[in-house]
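Hi there. Long-time user, first ticket. I'm pasting a complex I've been working with (about 860 residues overall). I'd like to know whether the download I got is complete or cut off, because the file seemed smaller than I expected. Thanks.
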Amino acid sequence: MNRLLRLTRRRLWTAIPVLMIVVVGGFFMLEAAPGDAVDAYVGAIGGDAELIESLRRDWGLDQSPLHRLGLYLWSLAHLDLGMSVTFSRPVRDIILERLPNTLLLMGSATALSFALGSLLGIVAGARPGSLRDRTLSIASLALYAMPGFWLGLVLTVIFSVHLRWLPGSGIETIASGKTGLARALDIARHLVLPVTSLGLVYLALYLRVMRSAMAEVWRLDFVLATRARGVPRRRIVLRHVARNALLPLVTMLGVQAAAMLGGSVVVETLFSVPGLGRLAQEAVSSRDTPLLLGVILTSAVLVILVNLAVDLLYATLDPRVGTGGRT
Amino acid sequence: MSNLLEIRGLQVTYASGRRAVDGLDLTLSEGEQLALIGESGSGKSTLALTIAGLLPPDSDVAGQVEWPGFTHPPRNGRDIGFVFQDASASLDPVMTIGDQVAEVAATQLGLSWKASLDRAAELFARVRLPDPRSMLRAYPHQLSGGQRQRVGIAAAIVAEPRLLIADEPTSALDTIVQAEIMRLLGDLVREASMSLLLVTHDIALASQYCERIAVMRNGRILEFGPVSDIVTRPADPYTQTLIDACLTLDEETGQTEGTP
Amino acid sequence: MRFLSRYGEFTAGAALLIAIALVALTAPLTFPGDPLAIAGPPMLPPFADSAFPFGTDRLGRDVLAQLVHGARTSLLVGLAAATTAMLFGSLVGLAAGFAGGLVDECLMRLTDAFQTVPAFLLALAFVSVSGPSLATMVLAIALGAWPGPARIARAEVLSIRERDYVAGARVIGMHPLEIALREILPNALPPVLSVSAIIVASAILIEAALSFLGLGDPNRVTWGSMIAEGRAVLRTAPMLSVFPGIALVLTVLGVYLVGEGLVEGTAVRRGLS
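Hi, the file is complete. Here it is re-exported in full:
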């Protein structure tokens, strides 16, 4: 417990400068865009120079960049992410609305891909070089090479268009009035295609990592020693080899958190899932700087938290971690 | 004394093409302590692994390995115990040492898990580990090199095997610890009347703990006989160079310095 | 059989990539003219007309011509982005490893920051800011890809610095800069190169995704934009989206196979296999 607390404290401590860099860097990068939110707004609505000036003043866009950065940082300290130009609502509210959908999507995709991927990886890695192993190897490589959005389109064509088994968009049937279990099932049905599109690629990855990790662990001396002690093969595979191979796999989980969040942008857009990813795309297309910055910031925080959780998980699995020396 | 093990014309070739054992004969009697002496690459470890049936599956083994002392082919962990050179590498880093020894007890002796843990604690006491009960929950990285090797020995003798093979059990340890571990091995072997096959490059060690020596070089046995004979009257010049290289061996008496 | 399994992956991947690269390089010869120009009747199905083997799209543009020219964009962006990322990343990593202290800390926090923001999101934001063009696409992808090589380079420098042959060089009085260039650098670079395949593959996929979202260069044909185009007629002509996707899969697969082959090759040479 002590070791885990120390780990948490250390990670959160280093997170602060990182987030500062993200905020400041993001702010100035979006600064560099030609034209600002007012131009986008006026471009869509229409207006004259007077309107532009007054809007600029209202939205504080006539100040110097440094001044505005200061204002932004000040409001951040109060957990205020500014106002969205497109939605005319506080950015924080919009993000909080959309976040659960993305978490649901990513959480399901991660859980399924991790569980199935490692299981199949154990199957493949139990007998390296066998026919089973080679087939899974090639299949997973082909799967890993697929763009998530294309996979989503293909699955949509098959399951939504031709077979009509699953809905092709949205997160639930609009205005259906369903509640409780019925609603949950409805959402689940809508999530099948997006979760699969997002998750299949990672399933392939975890399969490959588990398989190669098992092949590595098989070579280690303690496996020979357990054989010398007459421990049955099944127990060696599961309790020794797979258990040790789990470690690099868990490391992978952390590494892929950011990537999956990025992948959710396209998948959510494709399937019209109202989540954080699609919000980013909407913010980009309407040049809504505060919203985009808010999404970037939220993503960074999310990645840090997920990485922290993964690090803690790793520490519980590997008793050698955090016992002095560097991790 | 009957023979436990008889080897005739053994040849072992690894998948890479390297012939590690090139035609050798060997016999081991019941309750005997035999040392395999040789330098790195002599094939002594390969011979030990072959006897224990632990070679990689793609290795090529020719010749005969017979077990007249057994009515059935010997089983790893039950009839043969193996102690490895590097104890830190022979223990699973993410499992407690108690569990690792208990699983052998559960497998070989059919004990319940609780009984297996009890047996593990007994064994820890037998190999002279401090505080055996709380040691059950320790992890390998929390132990010293000597302690880890004691665990390795404990795991090897769980089912009281008739043959104990020790492959350079002390080479990875400090000198003082080496002596302690060898003394432990010697005592355990004597107490249980086990046959011992000690693989080592240290001829002094061999002469101290074993009755007979086989000197190996390039996959063959050069000399084979009682320890005192080999050390005082080596037939092969190579054996002489091994003896010369050993600082603590008294050539006149064939004894290691420091023994009464 | 062992030879096949060891080098078969590499040769298969290399064959794929060479084929695709040849197709891409010879595109102006085999399909001269603008692939985005209207060439024939719209919505021609594939394998129906010998003049348009893969059919035509909604506007009557030749699908095969687009596929072939799209290869140029994908390969170009993939290689350029990966090279930029590895060069820049290595420089940062080497600097951090050599300098140590506060400089190292700051550079590492910077690296952390770029790794914490999802690479695709970063690329998205950058392209939206700088406008859609090939150059901004390359930079956008490199922005998210450089931290990996930076970490590897830094780790290598830190470990090599402590090795015996470096200590030996120091003892015989070699100048620190000379040690850096002759002993450390050549040994620090191969591990960076070993991840090059992954970076190239991910660059190709990110480019495709950005083009799919409409953020690619509008004057160039890319497989991603083709897929986006085909989405509008997904029910009636799904092959318009399927073909460019298959092209992407084959290309990325080729890159992965070559990458795995390279990693295996170096492992074999180091005697690990």
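A couple of notes from our side: The CA atoms of residues 71 and 320 of chain A lie 46 Å apart. Chain A touches chain B through 23 residues (CB under 8 Å).
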